[in-house]
Amino acid sequence: MKSSKIPNSPVFPSGHKWPFEKRKNAYESDVTAMVRGMLEDDAILEDQRVAWARWRNDDSALKNK
Questions:
Q1: More reliable by pLDDT, 6 or 34
Q2: How far is CA 34 from its chain centroid?
Q3: DSSP-assigned letters across all residues of 25-41
Q4: Is the distance from CB of 9 to CB of 47 less than 8 angstroms?
């Protein structure tokens, strides 16, 4: 993927608090619950999808060896 096609990451206001709710049927830490809640935001989900696709398809790390 060319860097000109990479979308800008979402920007949230400073001090933004992510609402989250822990799962009741299994142990879940606050951080895990917060990340799970963040991925429900479409902007973050798309940003992470693009980042994963870039990382998975980037063979430059293999060329350095």
A1: 34
A2: 12
A3: SS---HHHHHHHHHTTS
A4: yes
